[in-house]
Design a protein that fits this description.
69% helix, two-stranded antiparallel sheet, mainly alpha, single chain, two-stranded antiparallel ribbon
Length: 430
Amino acid sequence: MSTKNLEFNKVLLNITLVVMFTFPKLNLNFAGIPLYIIDFLLILNWLVVDRKNQKSLDKIIFTIFFSSIFFIFISELFAFLTLNYSIEPFYSLIRTLLTYSLLILLFRRIQSEQEFYRAFIWVVRFSLVTVLLVVLSSIPQTRDFITKNVFELSFLDPAKGFLDKWDKADIDEVLRGRSLIGVSIITGYYLVFVYVLNMIVTKINRNSLSKITQKIFQYIIIIGVLFTNSRGPILTLILVILVDFLYLNSFRKISSIVISSVIIIGITFVFDLSDLELYFNRVIDGSEKLIDGNEGFGESENERLLAYIEPFEVIGRNLFLIFFGLGISERNIIDFQGRNLSDHAVFASAIYSYGLVFAMLFISLLGYLIFKIINSSSIYRPNQVQFFVVIFIWQLLGHAIISETRGMNILMITIFIISADFFKTKSNIL
């Protein structure tokens, strides 16, 4: 492949990853059907990929990967046959398969630490856009401006429900910040994931100026996660930072804590947050309910608990769910005891969408990733642990990792980082 073509391929991959992590819902509307730009970019990447790079997947991951695709296919086919031949199951199937193909594409396109750095450094840099939108959409002083000039643009596919909530919000109320990635919880997990990405690219690049810049990005991303006011991402960020502290020397631990504290105090004074009715009360109150027990649970907490109980009762009444589900778009048509099913966890959502066998395959994948991390001697092992923490907490408390292409992207990249050969040993670093 010529040098010119190689450069084009690198730029194309950079653009694809930036769109994936910053503008994943960017779309063109065709006859009422949203055609997502990220899907076209993935297809284009496959059209120009170097066919000589035939890097294969780990045998166990290969087996889990393609077995999962089989159950996805038969579930969406079942949905197609039982829903008056609706096109939606095939639409979901095509988007899911394209997202799953990202794992193989990364193995073909990124085969060294340097290539990983060049591919993902722009993802870290563009996280500034996401953090800016999260903060501006959260505080009342700028919420109206951002609504009219960003989130009301149809080609960015805003969440209409969130806009309605903005309209009803008190003028001095700080809401759960969102971005062009999606609602607060998905945005929050994305930012925590980018926080760890930032640590890897900093570790790869030894340039001292670059390390200072990346450190600044690290604290900016923390600000973004805090302004999502979402318990899951905030909890995950705390765990990710704790993992980092376990591998740092005492001086760096103390300095990191001091700098983080100064930044948080600074934000409070700059935005005068002490005078606002902080939405952080939701985080505190919800956490207290979890400690108090079932009697104190709200709807959100109850649904997350039921997501691990209901599936077994539903399977008893619908035995076909052992082998296949109703597809990702129609999983909620199963009604249990007069209400919609709770699927606020990957376990429940996987069963209703693709069947119990698929859910077991997903659990097997998590177990195998833990095995690979335990047996790793890489200098990137702390970061691999952190990436795993992100997807593990996310799948416990939400379903986006298998129900949304945005969540699947994070899963595929995590599998790649934990499995890639160049992350297993200490090799050439920039």
